[in-house]
Amino acid sequence: MAIKDWPAHERPREKLLLSGAGTLTDAELLAVLLGTGVRGRDALSLARDLLGRFGSISNLIGAHTGHAAANGLGPARQALLRASAELVRRALAERLREREVLGSPQAVKDYLRLTMLGRERECFVVLFLDAQNRVIASEELFSGTLTQTPVFPREIVRRCLVHNAAALIFAHNHPSGVAEPSRADEQLTRSLKATLANLDIRVLDHIIVGAEAATSLAERGLL
Fold first, then answer.
1. Nearest 5°: phi and psi at 43?
2. What does the DSSP 8-state code read for residue 160?
3. Tens digit of pLDDT for each residue in 82-98?
4. Whole-angstrom distance between the N-terminal and C-terminal Cα of the chain?
5. How is the beta sheet containing 202-209 ordered, strand by strand?
6. Residue 39: its pLDDT value, please?
7. What structural domains and CATH numbers belong to the chain?
8. Can you tell me the distance from the alpha carbon of 44 to that of 16, in angstroms, rounded to the nearest whole number?
């Protein structure tokens, strides 16, 4: 039976409009975005199959174009999913610019996870904050290999002066998927914090972004 023949309260799109997006499962939300299915599978069946194959929404959105296409997700639908993720990232960025980041730590993590979604190499991102701890800018300053990223303090200082930043939040991803800080991550953070303290610039946090989670060094008491 096609989705259009289901009772209205069971159809993902109608369910979203009637009860809100929060009531839908991941597969139902994905089905709404997909719109239609493929031969032999309706949109919900296709969504469930895609999530089963890729393991998570983030893996699906960040999947290599050819791999996604081979699993029933063509270029138009890949573009739709990535555009949706980018809209959410920009909405979170707007929210961070409007309020103190320390009052919304989860929004910071969500923003960073979307910013680094699908990266196959390590990258190092800096959030530049004003004196009220609101985001002035977000920049990816460095990128490296699968397991490490070179970080140059002089460049961080230069960008701080450009933005007249009063505080910073560092973030980098672990393409391996594990959001656990290494000893090297801790040492780098302490070194950068000491360097920037000489310029009266505070380091508020260093967040490690994995495939399914993000870990705050400040929350771990490691800053």
1. -60, -40
2. H
3. 888 888 888 887 877 77
4. 56
5. 135-143, 123-129, 167-173, 202-209, 214-216
6. 75
7. 3-86 (no CATH), 101-216 (3.40.140.10)
8. 14
Residue type, 179: A
DSSP class of residue 124? E
Question: Whose CA is closest to 55, among 223, 211, 220, 185?
Answer: 211
Q: Which amino acid is at 165?
A: A
Query: Taking the model in full, what pTM does it have?
Result: 0.73
Q: CA-CA distance, 185 to 139, in Å (whole number)?
A: 19
Tokens of 8: 């209205």
CA dihedral 96, 100, 104, 107 (to 10 degrees): 10
Strand segments, DSSP code E, in 47-183 are 123-129, 135-143, 167-173
Q: Which of 25-34, 95-104, 155-164, 194-203 has the lowest mean pLDDT?
A: 95-104
Structure tokens at 68: 């996604």
The dihedral through the CA atoms of 147, 152, 157, 162 has a sign that is negative
Residue 74: C-alpha distances to residues 4, 47, 109 (Å): 23, 13, 30
- For 12, 24, 29, 33, 135, the CA distances from 18, given in Å and listed in that order, are 10, 11, 14, 17, 36
Distance of CA 144 to the CA centre of its chain: 18
Which helix (DSSP H) or strand (DSSP E) does residue 16 occupy? helix 12-19
